[in-house]
Recover the amino acids of this structure.
């Protein structure tokens, strides 16, 4: 059963108009779990487990399952589902070659049986073509490309039904789209901006978030807590950083913090579109896109993740992107700014490279308060010391 958004609700409609719910509970769940125990099983990767969970909760509305060939091909080639709705990334389930079953059991990467899929189709995908068009590179050194190649080329598509949700990484921050929508409606927010991050938030991103918040009713700080590269800051450390930042520097009545359970693809521009569509399903009307959103290495141009929004017709995505430049504290201006708003030379700007910041934190040294809030820096220093 799906739950549409009531006509009177101020919250933006989900992508495709209906918030998908592919979960079952109670006796239905018990019956399906019992049936699943006797079915051919496929074990999902961490990314696929996250995708399954997000399909089931409606975070990937209008998807009701893993993609069949027509949707897969259409998304890879033209960033639209076969039915014509905008969609930027393939959401696929890889299976062993020769799989033949009408219904399969889906086991999460942590070992639990989670649901079933009614197999509509098993097909061979051209993963190299997918890499070229989706990631703009076929280089196996790209972590998203490597992941797609490792999954193999045999894919199965079809509607899923989930009887057990995977354990959320952060139960305290877990909010399904239906929950964030209710919270947004409850606060009476009409315009809500979503912010995606997989890093601790320093002054630069705080500034961008607050610039955006000046023009809307509320901010959803929506950190990605799914699988990331090994060298990204661990999610539990980041979550603690977000908490101390919000507690000390953000108005509680204008801010919500919850987890975005997706796995990173590092697909840059295409992932920016996908992230925006997902946030629309969570109830955001606006979405912040900074420089090199969801990028990795130097595979994407600085503004590619902003420019790609022009590939869609106005209104096609439904959610309004808000583009931002790199920001910094300027001693000449005496405040935060960007190349758009500050006339001074770089020598006036407080700039620290990521490497430099990591070195300082590793030595237990506080970065300047113009770069990082001391409460946030302290959490990171403690984390680095814990590792050492
Ligand atoms: Zn300045």
């Amino acid at each position: 059963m799906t739950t549409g958004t009531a006509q009177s609700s101020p919250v933006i409609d989900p992508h495709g108009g209906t918030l998908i719910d592919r979960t079952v509970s109670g006796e239905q769940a018990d019956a399906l779990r019992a049936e699943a125990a006797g079915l051919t099983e496929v074990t999902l990767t961490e990314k696929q487990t996250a995708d399954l969970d997000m399909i089931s909760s409606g975070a990937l509305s209008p998807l009701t399952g893993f993609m069949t060939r027509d949707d897969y091909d259409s998304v890879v080639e033209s960033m639209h589902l076969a039915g014509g709705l905008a969609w930027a990334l393939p959401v696929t389930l890889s299976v062993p070659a020769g799989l033949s079953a009408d219904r399969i059991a889906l086991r999460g990467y942590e070992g639990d049986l989670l649901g079933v899929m009614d197999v509509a189709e098993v097909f061979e995908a051209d993963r190299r073509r997918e890499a070229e068009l989706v990631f703009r590179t076929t280089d196996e050194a790209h972590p998203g490309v490597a992941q797609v190649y490792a999954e193999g080329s045999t894919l199965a598509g079809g509607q899923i039904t989930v009887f057990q949700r995977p354990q959320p990484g952060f139960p305290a921050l877990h909010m399904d789209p239906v929950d964030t929508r209710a919270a947004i409606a409850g606060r009476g927010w009409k315009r809500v901006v979503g912010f995606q991050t997989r890093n601790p938030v320093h002054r630069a991103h705080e500034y961008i978030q607050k610039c955006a918040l000046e023009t809307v009713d509320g901010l959803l700080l929506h950190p990605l807590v799914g699988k990331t590269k090994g060298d990204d800051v661990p999610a539990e450390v980041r979550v603690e950083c977000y908490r101390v930042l919000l507690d000390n520097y953000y108005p509680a009545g204008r801010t919500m913090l919850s987890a975005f359970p997706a796995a990173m693809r590092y697909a840059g521009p295409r992932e920016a579109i996908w992230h925006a569509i997902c946030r629309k399903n969570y109830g955001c009307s606006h979405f912040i896109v900074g420089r090199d959103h969801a990028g990795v290495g130097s595979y994407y141009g600085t503004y590619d993740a902003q420019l790609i929004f022009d590939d869609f017709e106005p209104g096609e995505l439904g959610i309004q992107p808000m583009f931002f430049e790199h920001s910094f504290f300027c001693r000449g201006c005496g405040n935060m700014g960007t190349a758009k708003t500050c006339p001074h030379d770089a020598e006036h700007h407080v700039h620290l490279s990521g490497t430099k910041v990591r070195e300082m934190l590793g030595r237990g040294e506080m970065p300047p308060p113009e770069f990082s809030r001391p409460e946030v820096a302290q959490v990171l220093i403690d984390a680095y010391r814990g590792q050492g």
Observations:
- The two ends are 50 Å apart (CA to CA).
